[in-house]
Amino acid sequence: MPPTPNRTLPPLNPLKAFEAAARHNSLTVAAEELNVSQVAVSLQVRVLEDYMGVTLFRRLNRGIELTREGVLLFKGIAKAFQDIEDTTKHVSRRDQRNILAIQSYVTFSRGWLMPRLGDFHAAHPRIEVRLSSSPEAADFDTDNLDAAIRGGDGNWPGLHAEKLADMELIPVCSPSFLAAHPLNRIEDLSQVKLLHSMARPKDWPAWLASVGAPLTPKNRLLFENSSLAYEGALMDLGVAIANRYFVQTQLNAGTLVTPFDHSCQTGESYYLTWPKDEPPSSPLLKFLDWIRIHFAPDDTPSADVISDQIVDETASNPGV
Question: What residue ranges define each of the domains in the chain, with the CATH number in brackets?
Fold first, then answer.
C-alpha cells in the first residue's frame, strides 16, 4: 500500500477561533465560548488571514462581517468541525461510563423490557438506561448504542448475538370478547375480527398453517405494530396473534385469555446484539448478567456465576 501523502492543514487554533467567530458572527461571543479574551480571538483570526493571504472578516463599527472568502471557508469547515464532534462523541466513553444505550422493538420494550426496568435500576441505580425503539435493525456505525434487541436467526455478520427467547405465537383476546364470541373450533375464527400487526404480517398465517386451518380470514383489523394489536385485543376489538413472552403478564392477570391451547414456534428468536469488534461496556456487562437471569430456565447458574462467566469470556476474547 503506497504511503499516504502528508496533509497540509492551516494552523488549527486560529482555525478554531475563526470558526467560533463566524458561527456567532461575533468576536466577543467567540471569546466567551473559547474562554479567552476578545483580543486573543482577533489575533488568531489575523494569523489565519496572514497564512491564507485573504481577508476573512470585514471589521465594522459595531461588529464583523464575513467576506466572500470567509463565507466559503466557513461553509467548508463548519461541517468538518461537526463531523469531528459527532465522531468523537460516538467513539469516546469519557462521559458515558454509566450510560447504557439500548435499541429495541416497540413491542419488546412495552411487553417485556419496560415492566422490568425498575428491577434493573434497583440493582444498578447508577446506570442510566437510554431506551430507544425502532422497527429497523440498529446501525452501530452511526447510532450511539451499546446493544440492540433483534429478531431473527441470530446470524448477523459482525454482531455477537445473545439468544433470549424463541418466538412462540398464541392467539389472545379479552375474556369479555370470548364470552360474546364463543370460539369452540378453529373455523370459528372466520366469524370474528383478527387483529394483525403490519410489522409482522406472517404471524397469523404461520399459526393458522400450524393447526392445519383451511380458512383465510378476511375480517381483520391492521395495526402498525404488535403492541397496538395487543391493546386492541384488551379493548374487545378481536383476536390478536401474540408472542407469549409479551402477553404473559396479562395472561397471568386474566385480562387476556387464549381461546386455543395450540402455540406455534416461528423458527425465529429474540437476541441481544452488539458489535463483535467492540468489548462490551461495564453497564452492558451488568445488563447481560441481569437479562440472562430473567430469560434463563430454572437450572441456570446463579447471578454470581454468570457474571464471572461474562468477565472470563471478555478477558479471553475482547470481541465477545
Answer: 12-91 (1.10.10.10), 99-320 (3.40.190.290)
